Amino acid sequence: MKKLLLLALIVAFTANLYAQTSDKKWGVGLGVGAYGTLNNGEIGLMPELYLGRYLSQRFDLMLKGDMGIFRTRMENNLDLANAFLNLRLKLSDESKNLRPYLFAGPGYLHDNSTSAVNFDLGLGAKYYMSQNTAFYMEAGYIRGIESTTYDGITGRENLWKATIGLEFDLGKTKDSDMDGVSDKKDNCPNTPSGVAVDANGCPIDTDGDGVADYIDDCPTVAGLTSLKGCPDADGDGVADKDDKCPDTPKGWKVDATGCPLDQDKDGVADAIDKCPDTPDGIDIDKDGCPVDTDGDGVADYLDKCPTVAGTKENNGCPVIEEAETETTSPEMTVEPVYFDYDKSNYISGEKKKIDKLVKILKADNNLKVNLTGNADNKGTAEYNMTLTEKRIDSVVKTIKSDGIPESRISKEKALGETKPVANNDTDEGRALNRRVTFEIIKVK
């Protein structure tokens, strides 16, 4: 008996056990074991049957029936029947796989000679082999009643018992969302069908960001609820996985790809573009504004004098205040100087015309001369324009060498072949078009 009790204690306190739960409140147990008397050591066989009812996380109520048969030296096969109403104290919660317990309660015993109220107490353990089936093992003490034995001795017969058996839990677990977790334990009772859940019945959230894996576009990396669980390192509202510019500075407006807005497409983000409406194709500076080479406030693409500071009113060109002038009299007119074909030096006989010009200028310091150059149409327009400039330069060089300061000489823009005075289809006409003309002006 001592060995059997010791074995029961070891099982009860070294194993993890289950029991009836709040989901399955009823249990039926069927077992068999041995019983014996404490005073004379007689032993018999003890089948038992019980019906259990879940009360709370700590207590079950059990209606149990034990029978004693084949007892030593007893002539009758059935020598006792005992019914108990036991309260079972569970020593671990429902989350464990195995569970120990204590039990005790009043009973009603009938043996061969008498019937009376008695009680039992003991300990046990249950191990669930499946969701509904458990193996149990328990040992206990039965307080007997006074009776007269077969040999005429009257006394109280106290018993011990040890049984093993199976318990079958009854009751259907309600699981509204069919996720395998009963509604009573389900913290998320409306989980969509087919979604993997944890022990609490809630959808699995691998990265712990509050967005369940089944709706998380980035299930292994913690992110933002607003971005379906994906992170946004630069905080621009575009998830990193979709962000083509993941290092955009804080506060900058971005487009759908996460890159800084650049409305005028000049390569400078609107956030730092001081001229966000620059027209397409215009050269810009580091601030996104059109280049203004001369710094006069007129962008080069609008500036008619981009290398010389001017005014906005004069399209970027400087305003030159010219002195009032009057055209000189006809007697001070100087004939044009002519040039040979493709030559920048004037014809040798033309020097006398320049001499006349110099004499007129020396006679009156208030006189100035403007020069205009022309060419025939032989060659390209660009070549003739350059040739015209060289012809003007050669005449100016002669005028200066004769003592006229450069301040009294104005060079008009070379006209090339654009202003012919004769027909370029003849040699004579072309000869008349290869010229530098003079305009003498008196400055008041």
Automatic annotation (TrEMBL):
Pfam name, any one: TSP_3
UniProt keyword terms in alphabetical order: Cell outer membrane, Ion transport, Membrane, Porin, Signal, Transmembrane, Transmembrane beta strand, Transport
Recorded superkingdom: Bacteria
Keyword match Mitochondrion: no
N-terminal signal peptide: 1-19
Molecular-function GO term, any one: porin activity
Record membrane topology: Multi-pass membrane protein
InterPro entries recorded: Bact_OuterMem_StrucFunc (IPR050330), Beta-barrel_OMP (IPR027385), OMP/PagP_B-barrel (IPR011250), OMP_bac (IPR006664), OmpA-like (IPR006665), OmpA-like_sf (IPR036737), Thrombospondin_3-like_rpt (IPR003367), TSP_type-3_rpt (IPR028974)
One GO-annotated biological process of the protein: cell adhesion
OmpA-like domain ranges (all copies): 326-444
Location, primary (coarse class): membrane
Subcellular location: Cell outer membrane
GO CC term (a single one): cell outer membrane
Classification via PANTHER family: LIPOPROTEIN YIAD-RELATED, STATOR ELEMENT OF FLAGELLAR MOTOR COMPLEX
Name of the protein this chain belongs to: Outer membrane protein A
